[in-house]
Design goal:
mainly alpha, extended
């Protein structure tokens, strides 16, 4: 049986990382109505983990 998978190709401007990441998050949220909070909380946890690791490196 054929498998159909939705696909989104994204082209970003790497010189504007914060704006581009915010735009990508908005697009993903628009494709998952009703799951926005869950997605944002998961992303926030991952960002918090990354910040903690970077803070640990800077402290050394």
């Amino acid at each position: 049986m054929a498998q159909i998978t939705p696909k989104l190709e994204i082209l970003v401007n790497l010189s504007q990382p914060s704006e581009e990441i915010a735009n990508i998050i908005s697009v993903f949220l628009s494709y998952h109505p009703g799951k926005e909070i869950e997605i944002l909380r998961t992303v926030r946890e991952q960002i918090d983990d990354a910040v903690a690791q970077l803070d640990g490196r800077e402290a050394q």
